[in-house]
Amino acid sequence: MKILIHGKNIELTGALKEYTESKITKATHHYKDIVKEADIHLSIEKNPRVSFQSAEVTIFANGIIIRAEEKSDNLYSSIDLVSNKLCRKLRKYKERTINSNYKETIQFKNASLDDTSNIAAETTDFLKEGLKGSLPEPSIKNKYFEMEPISISEARKQLDFIDHDFYFFRNKKNNELQVIYKRNHGGYGLIQSKKLNEHK
């Protein structure tokens, strides 16, 4: 597994790097067959009114992104907490993958292709609801990811493994960039671009 460690407002000493790497390696040990890369960001908040030290880890595993972040008043504690959270998320992902593969096998044996198409159509209709935009925060952090086209159903599953309320993805049905998000009152919403000639 490739491990990248970055620091903000902090000196990345050899001891800190070694501790971080050992904790993340231990957290991912049982999942090394699927984990390809770990991107780790350690930071200290310099605002005197806000005292916390954070550890953020993004795992790239078999085409899916798993993210965990923890903050505390001690960086080593934050690393411990984020490692534990990461381990839980990886376990959840593996269990879900096993269950999903089992269910797909059963459905293939017992359901027709038309039934499967109906399920996909219902899921798509469920996600296409009212959309609302929001302005970004004044401070913008850039992140770059490879975006292999995936289905809406796969994007919804991906959303469960990151500490955000939304997930930005490329829809393999039409190759468009879209955002799936968790609605406040339950369910999901899908943000997609509107064609200029629509509804004219």
What is the third-level CATH name, the topology of the largest domain? Double Stranded RNA Binding Domain
- The CATH superfamily label of the largest domain reads Ribosome hibernation promotion factor-like
Distance between the termini: 52 Å
Radius of gyration: 20 Å
**Averaged pLDDT:** 77
Q: Which oligomerization state do the chains in this entry correspond to?
A: single chain
Q: Report the order of strands and helices.
A: EHEEEHHHEEE
Describe the fold and architecture.
The chain is an alpha+beta fold. It folds into two domains: 1-110, 2-Layer Sandwich (Double Stranded RNA Binding Domain), CATH 3.30.160; 113-200, SHC Adaptor Protein, CATH 3.30.505.50. The chain has helices at residues 14-28, 75-110, 113-127, 152-159; strands at residues 2-8, 35-44, 53-61, 64-72, 166-170, 177-182, 188-191. The longest helix has 36 residues, at 75-110. It is globular and about 50 Å long. It starts with a strand and ends in a 9-residue tail after the last strand. The model has no long low-confidence stretch (mean pLDDT 77).
